[in-house]
Design a protein that fits this description.
CATH class: Alpha Beta
CATH superfamily: Thymidylate synthase/dCMP hydroxymethylase domain
Order of helices and strands: EHEEHHHEEEEEEHEH
Mean pLDDT: 93
Shape: globular
Radius of gyration: 18 Å
Distance between the termini: 32 Å
CATH topology: Thymidylate Synthase, Chain A
């Protein structure tokens, strides 16, 4: 299993660097079972984004826009409302049966030095392939760990599996919007002036699908050409 790290200033930079890292150093992996049975190129990857609040949150060539990001952050990360046919959203797991988001806000308002506030999305029943009579895929985002440090809310998140091209830019931008809402609620409750901090992500299977190889190669080619020129 190949492991790598990516460090970026902002979210668009993290997306481009992740695609480059997987494309250049990833290993071929045949998915034999899952939502899409196909060939991929993948890495066990860690990503650190030092200034995720920097705008724009979405690269101009990413397959999503801010309208989608705001809707995703509200519906799938914050509000907890499921659409018909959905067994869960990340938000529904964060809000029920225990409202973990509210608990985090209340605890930090009471004790800002607490380092034990981890929100968990994966549940024991996710090992089963059918829930509520429907085919079930376990959540890709499994853990959101929080740390309030030096006046900033830092998040560390784990994705068991992660589509680097289409899923990653929307997920990270949505989590930044989520973190801004979390900090806003905390400040309103505690009368504080906290801001969002770094975002750190880990995924054991951050991948590019084979059907997207040509698109990704074309997308990162300008960056490859620039590096070759610098290296001459």
């Amino acid at each position: 299993m190949k492991y790598a790290t990516v460090k970026a200033f902002d979210i668009p930079g993290a997306w481009y660097r992740t695609l480059e890292e997987i494309w250049e150093n990833g290993e071929d992996f045949s998915v034999g079972y899952g939502s899409e049975v196909t060939m991929t190129r993948k890495l066990n990857l860690s990503i650190r984004i030092t200034n995720p609040e920097s705008r724009p949150l979405v690269a101009d060539k990413a397959p999503c826009d801010m309208k989608y990001i705001n809707s995703y952050a509200l519906q799938y990360l914050w509000a907890g409302v499921k659409e018909e046919g959905e067994t869960y959203t990340y938000a529904s797991r964060l809000r029920e049966p225990v409202d973990q988001i509210q608990q985090v806000i209340e605890r930090y308002a009471e004790e800002p030095q607490d380092r034990q506030l981890t929100m968990v999305i994966r549940q024991p029943q996710d090992i089963h392939k059918t829930l509520a009579g429907m085919k079930h895929e376990p959540p890709c985002l499994t853990v959101m760990d929080t740390e309030l440090l030096d006046g900033k809310m830092h998040l560390t998140c784990y994705f068991r599996s992660w589509d680097a091209y289409a899923g990653l830019p929307a997920n990270i931008a949505g989590i930044q919007v989520f973190n801004e809402a979390l900090v806003g609620e905390l400040n309103a409750r505690a009368g504080t002036d906290y801001s969002t901090g770094e975002l750190v992500f880990h995924s054991k299977n951050c991948h590019i699908y084979s059907r997207l190889y040509d698109l990704v190669e074309e997308l990162i080619k300008p960056g490859e050409d620039s590096r070759r020129q610098r290296d001459k």
